[in-house]
Amino acid sequence: MKTAVVIDSTAYIPKEVREKYHIHMIPLNVIIGNEAYREEIDLTADDFYEEIKKADKLPTTSQPSIGQFAELFEELSKEYDAVISVHLSSGISGTYMGAISAGEMVEELEVYAFDSEISCMVQGFYAIEAAQMALDGKEPAEIITRLDEMKKTIQAYFMVDDLSNLQRGGRLSSAQALIGSLLQVKPLLQFENKVIVPFEKIRTRKKAMKRIVELLTKATVGDGQYKAVIIHAKREEEARQWRDEIQAGLSNVEFDIGYFGPVIGTHLGEGAMGLGWYKVK
């Protein structure tokens, strides 16, 4: 059985990596003013952060239509027997459900939708793993089993400079945003039960980043090899410096650099930083 892998754009897997592993991408949209952009196609992350500085109000975002999914699946059915379709958490977007609905419409293809329960390059870890297994000829059921196994060790934490975007976008309650603003805290956030929730309240950016490293170190101590990704919202130099600092003390962790693109960046804002990881073996 020949299996394709589909990812939505919020995984922010670089184009060259998608091409290497034959990963197909379906974009979400960000609307700035009266213009709609397909992220990773019409609008890069860097361009997005420049555009929103000039915008009068916060951009909005939208998921792919079921028709877009169906069109992609129909095209893939000409070459593939099955699709593993990996998507951002169903708790913050209907993208995963859209993939399920479209899969039911395309009879020529077996569609296995997978809810990553997270986003960004941590979500991308699932797609890359699935794509490598598909290239190795593994069956869809075996790939899904492996993704479920990965989910047991995947962790991610992130911090934002300003909670207002999350609150305005409906991803965090008004009360939580107000408390954070009044206390001038840099709350650590995480995905729990598919939604974004506060993990700890920390006073400064430096201390918040230090706390994330403590969590990574605790999770990866002992036997085992891990992959990790530092994710930034237009703070690439800071992300690289942070990686170099952490890497020196964790020889069993392989690090990469990722980014918060337009759709996720709309809700987190410029300056957000995150770190996610999983156990490879």
Task: Specify the number of helices.
Answer: 11
Helical/strand content category? alpha/beta
The run of helices and strands is EHEEEHEHEHEHHEHHEEHEHEHE
Strand tally is 13
Distance between the termini: 26 Å
Low-confidence stretches: none
Radius of gyration: 19 Å
Q: Report the β-strand fraction as a percent range.
A: 15-25%
Q: Which strand order do you get reading across the main beta sheet?
A: 10-9-8-13-11-12
CATH topology annotation of the largest domain:
Hypothetical Protein Tm841, Chain: A,domain 3
Instruction: Kindly report the average pLDDT value.
Output: 91
CATH architecture of the largest domain: 2-Layer Sandwich
Q: How many independent structural domains?
A: 2
Q: In CATH, what is the class of the largest domain?
A: Alpha Beta
Helix content: 40-55%
For the largest beta-sheet, the strand count, sense and barrel status come to: 6 strands, mixed
Looking at the structure, what is the overall shape? globular
Can you offer a commentary on this structure?
It holds the Pfam family DegV. This is DegV family protein. With 281 residues, this protein is of the alpha/beta class. The protein folds into two domains: 3-28 and 63-151, Rossmann fold, CATH 3.40.50.10170; 155-279, Hypothetical Protein Tm841, Chain: A,domain 3 (2-Layer Sandwich). It has eleven helices and 13 strands. Strand 6, helix 4 and strand 7 (110-115) form a beta-alpha-beta unit. It is globular. The model has no long low-confidence stretch (mean pLDDT 91).
